[in-house]
Model the fold of this input.
Amino acid sequence: MRYKCTVQYDGTLFHGFQTQPNLRTVQEEIEKVLYIITKDNIKIQAAGRTDTGVHSLGQVFHFDSSITMGEWNMQNALNSRLPKDIYISKVEHVDKTFHARYSAKKKEYHYIIDIGEYNPLYHNYRYYVKHQLDINKMIDASLCFIGEHDFKAFTKNHNLINTTRIIDNIIFIQNDNIIIIKFIGNGFLHNMIRIIVAMLIEVGRGRKTKEELIEILEGKDRTRAPKTAPPNGLYLINICYNI
Amino acid sequence: MRYKCTVQYDGTLFHGFQTQPNLRTVQEEIEKVLYIITKDNIKIQAAGRTDTGVHSLGQVFHFDSSITMGEWNMQNALNSRLPKDIYISKVEHVDKTFHARYSAKKKEYHYIIDIGEYNPLYHNYRYYVKHQLDINKMIDASLCFIGEHDFKAFTKNHNLINTTRIIDNIIFIQNDNIIIIKFIGNGFLHNMIRIIVAMLIEVGRGRKTKEELIEILEGKDRTRAPKTAPPNGLYLINICYNI
Done:
């Protein structure tokens, strides 16, 4: 029996999604609870990793179990045992052709910037930027990332063979002091969104131009895009399996 | 020189406001930074304590120092050294007649209840209630607390001589699944708001009546009001010094 689960988490107190020795991760917490429920050492397979501090409202994983439980029962069994910073929002029975990672068609991430006065209650949930930002320049510069590009300059991982990804859309929403940047694409490299956000902020501050961003993108040199926006503003919103 | 400071904090990782040995508290963090700035062992005096997990958007404290700094400079000196879950939102020079605790005329607290689906991103900031609540019954029952009453049944602290307080107003605001209950009064006993909220939820669930609440209030017996709503839904919003 294959189960597809949608999981929300507050990334603040996790060392990311993926299991790491001696560190608290989302995967390990879920697998511990699955062991309690099924008495089997189940390994879950997620759509992708998220880093320390990155939040999720729509991460997806699947796992197989010989135990047959109703969707609702499995959801309750998980949520009643999981720590409060993880919540399973949906469980579905799926057939064996479904794979959380390989079946994923699109991913949606949001990045939240706050240019207003600092509020310590949101310090884990927004990136506070103290500078004036020219949002129209940022929107214009973001266009250079849309489409299929080799994002080699925009990732931490230098050993990847294929660093080409397709970004379908980058959407800006401003509401008073909050700027939400929505990214929709077929996949994102490690730190890619956070580096793009950092570069867009440089443009908004007037320290970089759109032309310089195009140069960096085409130059494929990570040292030209040295900044990375903090993880706490980043949210994995949705994994899309059907188009 | 007397300084009046307004301080916001995320109560999640503090063992309340007031200094306690070997525990992380808001007071200790602020006094450590004041020592760095002034090289004096300054004790701050707050308007009141808050418990572990209770948040603040408007706590006030004062302190005296022989060092004269501009209001803006003092605010920056503090904020640049304080941890990210504390933020000084205002510093004012005041004369020696001002006392953060004794000069306080009114205090305002908000309590946030969420009756919608659980979201782990808000788990430290709202009280999730899984039951249907009849908000009109809660509003009606809240009226019995308004005015001057002996709140002996509604506090954890049994050794207080004077347990009489005046609640000016209790205001309910509902927005979709969020219920905010605003309390304004001359002061609140230890756990008083959280016990009142727990009792109002009992009324909203149909497990207690307004008449029973009046009986408990008049009976002055804490064992009749045994529940306490969790601290993470509670916010100290404002201390009012001028009326």
Q: What stands out?
A: The beta strands of chain A are 2-9, 45-46, 55-64, 86-94, 106-114, 127-128, 147-150, 164-175, 178-185, 234-240. Chain A touches chain B at residues 8-10, 55, 57, 79, 84-87, 89, 117-121, 123, 125 (CB under 8 Å). The helical segments of chain A are 26-38, 71-79, 135-142, 192-204, 210-219. Chain A is about 20% helix and 30% strand.
